[in-house]
Amino acid sequence: MFRAALRSLLGRKLRLLMSTFAIVLGVGFVAGTLIFSDTLSRSFTAIFASSVGDVVVRPEGGPVGEGGPSTVTIPATLTQDLAAVEGAARADGNVEAFGVFVIDADGKPIGGAGPPALAGNWTDAPAGNGLTSLVITEGREPEGPGEVVLDAKTAEKSGYDLGDDVSLVTAFQQAELSPTLVGTADFGDGGSLNGATLAIFETGAAQDLFLGGQDAFNSYWVTAADGVSQEVLRDRVAEVLPEGVEAVTGDEAADESASQLLTAISFITTFLLIFAAISLVVGSFLIVNTFSILVAQRSRELALLRALGASRRQVRRMVLIEATVVGLVGSTLGLGLGVLLFLGIRAAFGQFGLDISGTAMVFEPRTVLAAYAVGVVVTVLAAWVPARRTSRIAPVAALRDDVALPEDTLHRRFLVGLALVAAGAVGIGLALFGSVPRAGYVLGGGTLAVLLGVAAASPVLARPFLAGTSSGYARGFGAVGTLAGQNSRRNPRRTAATASALMIGLTLCVTMAIVGSSAKASVDAAVEENFVGDFVVSNVFGVPFSPSVADRIEEDVAGVDSVTRLRFGPVEVDGEREGLLGTDPASLAETAQIEMVEGSLAELDASSVVIAEDVAEDRGVGVGDRLEVQAIGGDSTFTVAGIFAENPVLSFPLVVTLEAFADAGFQPSDNFLFVDVAAGSDREAARAAMEDIVAGNTLVSVKDQEGLAEEQRGPIDQLLTLIYGLLALALVIAVLGIVNTLALSVIERTREIGLLRAIGLSRRQLRTMIRLESVVIAVLGALLGTGLGLVFGVVLMKDLESEGLEVIAVPWGQLAAFLVVSLLVGVLAAVFPARRAGRLDVLRAIATE
């Protein structure tokens, strides 16, 4: 039976090609995602290993590496004490800064869309465990103010040469810098900044720029002498440290930073794997259809095997062996495609600033195991139902000319489909409106159950549509239309299964279209309702910018009534991540409509906090209670002065004064400025004056209310573009499913087509017939997908009302475009099968058994 299965495969190579291709695409996406994830992990591990000393001395505080370095510093007088510790070879102080952007020779920022813009002081201190940290690759180290060294990749991208003046924009008091490039640097032991930029200054210059001239450092590296372990040196260093300063081993600091960052970006892997799973589910429909048709075409052959003594188990095993071989071949090719997809994913994320091109590709054994497990298991499971039907062929069937496979009743399948839809709806309801653990998994499982349920019930659900199209075809295309309609209704299971593959991809597209359109409409409504100021000043990357911008607007722009500064920073409350917002409560009340549920914004002072309503409920706190907050500058305890309703202007749930924000250890850099112009003043003149102030700062812009809404819509459009790009893979597989089904159907009906041609059907009429059959499949899938997408989209937006997305907007024009594209898909998918049918030799076709 094994040899028979192999002969069968070799005799039907072309028929299985597209089915294998579906597995190749799905497995390729899984493999590419895992390779990308492992390479990303390796790259960050290498970066942080080369970015710490044997022992790191730093201020005690909260989340390390979050929100930039703390403003809490360590005095430079500690240098001699650290260097004198027994077992220490040397001690080096580090100045660290975030928000120093390199502007290239064409006036465009390098990076900034994700990875940070770093700066610091030059030091030749070795990294931990004897690794080499940064080394000069060209030129020399900076020797005084007005000189800078850039990392080699940034220097290459920016177009600057040694001796050029480099344009820098900072988030510090001095907003714009033009130092001379005197050298480039890179990691001596390999590694990459993964898209981040690095500007390095002489130590005194860095202290003047980033520490306000303090003779201090953000951290120290203490290098161990030969034979001294990191743990021993850490304990000895700790004995000489003042209060508020701690020592950790370099390995601990590197692992801590790497794990925090990898946890923060772990959503990338999850995000990509979700779309790989979607592709595999859609591909499964193609595989089921392919094996169902192939088994139907070979029913006489398989019945003869039964008549010759093969058992049901052997016949079933034969089909599953074929599926296993297809899965193995598809998985092998998928691994190769995975490497290409990894390169594509790496390039795509490089456009968003996450550049890991400097790290060698990591190909772990788990990637190979996952690829073969996914490819083979999915293929075998998809082929199980056709194999089971095959084993039920009675041996006596071999004596008849019209061998037919036994079919489960559509009634039973319809009931199973309804049960799946009901179960899925319950799961979706619990995930969206109930309180269940791992709600995301419950939501995903419920969605999948509904999709599979509709797919199972679709042969029955499609009957009215197929009857209607059959009637319409007969009136519109005469005999050819009648034949096309009858062929579509001949096997509703096959037609519906092929349409279901398209349905799943389109359902997700429609859902995301509704979510995206509703989110943008909600942003517009929220800005119009809650923002009453005249102008907003912000950074194009959404990161902090220099406070000198607000200072100059307050001092130099005539007619400005108030300037409200908003500053953001990450904190932890009870071990969970939250966001802290620093502002001036008096001016905030003038530029934004803040609805206080309890307490008053006017009561906010340096020792208190106002919090969002949902956070107050989650934490179980009210006005007058104490709230402990862990920030990068240490722990702080605030009194709750008020609770405010959901408000898009206050994008972070914990609001404190500017003074309290600075005390928490955050840099006094602004994320947003709300500018209110006094009544009767010339708004356009005020805007022009503000634009003159920020003219030299490439990253900062002035916007009115409409411009603010447009800026907030930008990230939504970017995310939708990425999602549509990934869903396109599932749609490609669905189109291949239509092509495959039609091509196999042509082979299955070879004799019938020959007879039709013999009695006068022209090649053109034959191609039209097949094209009409394809359009039926595509439009059926489009209608089912659009209907489900509408339901999912509206339900999801209803659940998101509590998150401030209160407007449900259905993009009818976009949905109509989806239907038109589906119609075109049907026409194009029929090109190859129709040409194949038209080329059949009439006499040979008639003679086919």
TrEMBL record:
UniProt entry keywords in alphabetical sequence: Cell membrane, Membrane, Transmembrane, Transmembrane helix
All residue ranges annotated as the ABC3 transporter permease C-terminal domain in the record: 274-395, 726-840
Topological relation to the membrane, as annotated: Multi-pass membrane protein
GO cellular component terms, A-Z: plasma membrane
Residue ranges of coiled coil: none
Subcellular location: Cell membrane
Record flagged with keyword Transmembrane: yes
InterPro entries for the chain: ABC3_permease_C, MacB_PCD, Macrolide_Exporter_MacB
Span of domain MacB-like periplasmic core: 17-239, 495-692
Membrane-spanning residues: 16-36, 271-297, 318-349, 369-387, 414-433, 439-462, 496-515, 722-747, 768-795, 815-834
GO function term, MF aspect, one: transmembrane transporter activity
Pfam families, per database record: FtsX, MacB_PCD
Protein family according to the UniProt entry: Belongs to the ABC-4 integral membrane protein family.
Name by which UniProt lists this protein: ABC transporter permease
Organism: Nocardioides donggukensis
